[in-house]
């Protein structure tokens, strides 16, 4: 956002600019209200603010606390993961404990860039703070997310619910349930692996293909037999998932900032010129 202080004697220009700015503020406000209301209508736990909070946390980590409204400033110092005070208490994030996953995607085709979470119930604010960064930099399948990639990201938060033991490896519904399997590998060590509910559907897998893929994901290298499948323990679960893009986050920040600066403008006659984020 660009802010310029104009002289009070240029009243006509001030009024025109303020009117244009007011229209822009209202448009941004409607956009954010739509995002928030859409998430509230469909979900009971996950909301847009949780996604925006993940962007805030990752941006603070990548840009040493200097990122703001899409203007990122590089620093020669090492990355500082310390949180600024305002990030310790996220707004509109339920305090209830849930298992959760944070997923980062990149580009218009939303290629996976990192996904890590936990099956242990965590306070959602704490969980989002931890896994927004962990999934971005510690997923062993990928290199850490860079500053340059940040504006191209989408973020998804999945809150896991309705955990139930399965009677067999196929006792779950593709597209509805995620599954977590536990098994013994060739050395007799206990291993586990999971796919979130959307994975099997997106890949076009049936139950056997999904379970076999999970076994390989969990490090099982021996031939997979029907007897092996019968011996695994399967837990099914559901999730609430919401995905938003970086631009949605920036619009929410700009709209929030505009509502503050508009009030300030009424008392100081300061003209605020807002550039719409691309």
From TrEMBL:
PROSITE patterns: AMMECR1. Residues 1-19 have a biased composition (Acidic residues). This is AMMECR1 domain-containing protein. It comes from Rotaria sordida. InterPro entries: AMMECR1, AMMECR1_dom_sf, AMMECR1_domain, AMMECR1_N. NCBIfam families: TIGR00296 family protein (TIGR00296). It comes from the Eukaryota. SUPFAM superfamilies: AMMECR1-like (SSF143447).
């Amino acid at each position: 956002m660009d802010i310029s202080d104009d002289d009070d004697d240029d009243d006509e220009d001030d009024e025109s600019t303020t009117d244009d700015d007011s229209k822009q503020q209202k448009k941004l406000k409607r956009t954010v209200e739509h995002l928030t209301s859409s998430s509230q209508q469909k979900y009971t736990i996950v909301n847009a603010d949780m996604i925006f909070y993940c962007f805030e946390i990752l941006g603070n980590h990548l840009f040493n606390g200097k990122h703001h409204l899409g203007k990122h400033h590089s620093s020669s110092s090492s990355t500082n993961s310390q949180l600024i005070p305002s990030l310790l208490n996220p707004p509109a994030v339920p305090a209830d404990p849930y298992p959760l996953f944070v997923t980062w995607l990149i580009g218009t085709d939303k290629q996976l860039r990192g996904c890590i979470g936990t099956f242990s119930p965590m306070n959602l604010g704490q969980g989002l703070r931890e896994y927004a960064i962990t999934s971005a930099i510690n997923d062993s399948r990928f290199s850490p997310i860079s500053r340059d990639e940040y504006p191209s990201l989408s973020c998804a938060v999945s809150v896991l619910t309705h955990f139930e033991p399965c009677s067999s490896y196929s006792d779950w519904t593709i597209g509805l349930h995620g599954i977590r399997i536990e098994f013994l590998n060739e050395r007799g060590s206990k291993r586990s692996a999971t796919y979130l509910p959307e994975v099997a559907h997106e890949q076009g897998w049936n139950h056997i293909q999904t379970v076999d893929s999970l076994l390989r994901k969990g490090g099982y290298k021996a031939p997979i037999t029907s007897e092996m499948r019968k011996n695994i323990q399967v837990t099914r679960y559901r999730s609430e998932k919401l995905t938003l893009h970086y631009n949605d986050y920036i619009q929410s920040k700009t709209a929030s900032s505009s509502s503050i600066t508009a009030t300030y403008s009424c008392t100081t006659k300061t003209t605020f010129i807002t550039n719409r984020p691309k």
